[in-house]
């Protein structure tokens, strides 16, 4: 780990303007303070001792950190090496929206997460994947799906809210509407909210129903549909740049990476093989 403190900050408009932080903190002590957003974090190296007015704990490598909006907290390094972490400052409205979806099953109490730190490997993996995707060329639909799933997990496992979801959420008509919309709008940057509106059910409910019916997330289905259309256009000998634009990929390089991941060959290799003989 670096011996110097450093931090990078950026914002994600497609995640309700969430603030993303990636930093290394050495000899840094947080005074008592609070944020207007919910703070979600993952310690990657080192350790920090976090305190709120009612709880405290040591967040070490792999630990999840969670501070409620407007919750006063204080942090000190456990040793002189400090800690390295990734953090998301998330608008409380995003949490409320997911909670409202879960409340359709059982009335919930006021939202309050139980922090400031805990071990939850699945939540840690989801936060890390989401954070990495905020630095890549993945779609808004993909990032929003990861965030909604993470928030739901935290509400269900680490909050005082009385929320619950059934094991099965089929909604075949809603899923069919979502599949059709994705297939017919390959070139568009479809958001989860837009897909939810088209399907007629809330975002988290749609994510669960879609995966249970299709076996894929909406983003994975969209990517598959784009690659299938790219295959058809390759057989028609259309230029790669045109195919990338038509099928919704950011550029030719994005098309090539995704196509190879799914097909095991580049678009050029596929074009050649499909016309061999």
Automatic annotation (TrEMBL):
- Gene3D superfamilies attached to this UniProt entry: Homeodomain-like
Recorded GO terms, molecular function?
DNA-binding transcription factor activity; sequence-specific DNA binding
Keyword terms of this UniProt record = Activator, DNA-binding, Transcription, Transcription regulation
Q: Where does the signal sequence lie?
A: none
Q: Which residues form the HTH araC/xylS-type domain?
A: 176-273
Q: Which residues form a coiled coil?
A: none
Q: Which PANTHER family match?
A: HTH-TYPE TRANSCRIPTIONAL ACTIVATOR RHAS-RELATED (PTHR46796), TRANSCRIPTIONAL REGULATORY PROTEIN (PTHR46796:SF2)
Q: Supply the name of the protein.
A: HTH-type transcriptional activator RhaR
Q: Which organism is it from?
A: Paraburkholderia humisilvae
- State which gene encodes it: rhaR_9
